[in-house]
């Protein structure tokens, strides 16, 4: 189990490092990097499934510690998956805005052909709607960034809390029942966090679809 654990942990750190390249990659190549990162994340999830099985087979004295370590890896990779999806949503929204801008600029305005002319009022209204949609997306992206920063802080706090819990448990010899309660509470917090991320993604999608 130790070999697979360290291999998986190394892969997570490598993906974290590659995530920083997304913002600097050109438009023609960014989807290739996204696909590469998603493939590595999928592989990590596969390793975690194997680690969960191995952790359940550990001796009773080490089983709880093994499960906590695997849960921490799951938390880290879920955070990476959410960050990748948020980046993709922002990229899709930006590309949609670029297409709309190009379509608007390519339209032909005439004064004689009633079938092809576009009323000035309609054009101004469309431009206003686009401006409002862009501003709404900027605000939403800012909120999403704040949420991600908060989640990063929570992850650091949870890491420290898990370590302290484990140290205290080893020192005081807490019962398995108490440890299970602690693990259950950590899992509940994780589900709440994932639900909040999904809700943010849904809101961003709806804004892009109906405002842009």
Keywords:
single chain, 212 residues, mainly alpha, 5 helices, 85% helix, elongated
The helicity comes to: over 70%
Shape label:
elongated
Strand content: under 5%
Count all strands and give the number: 0
Mean pLDDT: 75
Order of helices and strands: HHHHH
**Structural class category:** mainly alpha
Radius of gyration: 24 Å
Helix count? 5
The largest sheet is: none
CA-to-CA gap between the ends? 49 Å
Low-confidence residue ranges: 113-118
What does this structure look like?
By secondary structure, this protein is an all-alpha fold. The protein is 85% helix and 0% strand. It has 5 helices and no strands. The chain has helices at 2-19, 30-56, 60-106, 120-172, 176-210. Helix 1 (2-19) packs antiparallel against helix 2 and helix 3 (60-106) packs antiparallel against helix 4 (120-172). The longest helix has 53 residues, at 120-172. The radius of gyration is 24 Å and the shape is elongated. The protein starts with a helix and ends with a helix.
Topology:
Blueprint: H1 2-19, H2 30-56, H3 60-106, H4 120-172, H5 176-210
Helix pairs in contact: 1-2, 1-3, 2-3, 3-4, 3-5, 4-5
């Amino acid at each position: 189990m130790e070999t697979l654990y360290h291999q998986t942990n190394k892969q997570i750190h490598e993906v974290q490092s590659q995530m920083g390249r997304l913002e600097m990659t050109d438009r023609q190549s960014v989807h290739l990097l996204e696909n590469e990162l998603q493939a590595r994340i999928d592989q990590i999830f596969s390793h975690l499934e194997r680690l969960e099985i191995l952790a359940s087979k550990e001796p009773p004295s080490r089983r709880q510690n093994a499960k906590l370590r695997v849960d921490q890896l799951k938390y880290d990779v879920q955070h990476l998956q959410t960050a990748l999806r948020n980046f993709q949503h922002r990229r899709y929204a930006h590309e949609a805005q670029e297409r709309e801008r190009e379509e608007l600029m390519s339209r032909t305005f005439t004064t004689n052909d009633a079938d092809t002319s576009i009323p000035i009022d309609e054009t101004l209204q469309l431009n206003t709607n686009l401006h409002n949609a862009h501003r709404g997306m900027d605000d939403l992206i800012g909120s999403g960034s704040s949420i991600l920063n908060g989640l990063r802080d929570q992850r650091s706090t949870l890491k420290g809390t898990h370590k302290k819990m484990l140290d205290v448990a080893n020192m005081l010899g807490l019962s398995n029942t108490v440890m299970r309660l602690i693990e259950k509470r950590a899992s509940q917090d994780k589900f709440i966090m994932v639900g909040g991320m999904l809700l943010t993604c849904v809101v961003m999608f709806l804004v892009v679809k109906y405002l842009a």
